[in-house]
Amino acid sequence: MISTRELTKDFVVSRTETVHAVRGISLDVEPGELVAVLGPNGAGKTTTLRMLTTLITPTAGTATVAGYDVTEHPSQVRRRIGYVGQGNGAGHNQRAGDELIGQGVIYGLDRRAARRRTAELLDALELTELARRKVSELSGGQRRRLDVAMGLVHAPSLLFLDEPSTGLDPQNRANLWDHILRMREQYAMTIVLTTHYLDEADSMAERVVVVDNGQVIADDTAEALKTKLAGDRLALTVAPSNLSRLAELAGKLPGAKEVVAVGDEVSVRVADGPAALPELITAAQQNGVPVAAAQVHRPTLDDVFLNLTGRSLREDNSNGKAAA
């Protein structure tokens, strides 16, 4: 569905300054996949999506989307994709239903077909009762559902979602995703999304692509990334007098790393926490070190990013400026 090779985008700021926003991204997305693209603000996520959706032209490299080259056949690409950007796409003074009908006409549907498709989407996204209401009168969650409907009005095989749930409260985020996943199943769509919510990528996406400094630095399932790049963290509580001895034993576990002993707790990073924890507790008992409490902490995608780059993705996204 998507294939890029060395896709690059430079922005000339002045005669002496060029911003290298995307630095040679090669990526393949198969039909039916749901792929999440993660990265800090300014990593190149949105710029990549804008190239794939033909909104901007690549500086170098190639990209085919839905079987068409984005540079040579942009109109063919646009007919086959839906795009939900970061901002609200509907006109604030327009009625929700009218906006959808107009979008359908723009994509070549006759007015009868556009009205039929509008009714179908309003029903699927639980917006039917709001069809005659102005967009400015809708709540944030309702507006985002309308944005998704506008992206789907022409029944695209590929849907791009750029920060689809940013600014929504947890309940509206969950509600939006329930609708998106139901629509995906109903229409057998491929979905590519960017998000700052790591839990969304972890629970929704079948693949996670991590981008930093305009390059892909990791590409796998969320579970595989967490297992390979972060591992589990064991945390054991002991008497302070036994701290150093337990830390020594923890360091002898196969593949042990990041052994930290502070206060009354020893933590250690291992590849397989559930298997390593009984081994460490047994070793502690055999060496006269009573363990008061023990836990296995599964890694997060933020741990993966921290492992890859030495900084937190969560902090970068919460403190940064608008994404690029």
What are the defining features of this structure?
Rossmann fold, 12 helices, elongated, 4-stranded antiparallel sheet, alpha/beta, 324 residues, 2 domains, single chain
Short summary of the structure?
With 324 residues, the protein is α/β, with parallel strands linked by helices. It is 39% helix and 27% strand. It contains twelve helices and 14 strands.
CATH domain class of the largest domain: Alpha Beta
What low-confidence regions span 5 or more consecutive residues with pLDDT below 50?
Answer: 320-324
* CATH fold category name of the largest domain: Rossmann fold
Report the end-to-end length measured between terminal Cα atoms: 23 Å
- Count, helices: 12
Helix content class: 25-40%
State the fourth-level CATH superfamily of the largest domain: P-loop containing nucleotide triphosphate hydrolases
Give the overall average pLDDT: 91
Lateral strand order in the biggest sheet: 6-7-8-3-9-10
Global shape: elongated
Protein name: ABC-2 type transport system ATP-binding protein
GO molecular function: ATP binding; ATP hydrolysis activity
Domain ABC transporter: 2-238
Pfam families: ABC_tran, DrrA1-3_C
Note down, in words, how this protein is organized.
The protein folds into 2 domains: 2-226, P-loop containing nucleotide triphosphate hydrolases (Rossmann fold, 3-Layer(aba) Sandwich); 232-298, Alpha-Beta Plaits, CATH 3.30.70. Helix 5 runs parallel beside helix 6 (170-187) and helix 8 (222-230) crosses helix 11. It has helices at 45-52, 74-80, 96-106, 111-124, 140-152, 170-187, 198-204, 222-230, 243-250, 273-286, 301-309, 313-319, and strands at residues 2-14, 17-29, 34-38, 60-65, 68-69, 81-84, 158-162, 190-194, 207-212, 215-220, 232-237, 257-262, 265-270, 293-297. Helices cover 39% and strands 27% of the residues. It has 12 helices and 14 strands.
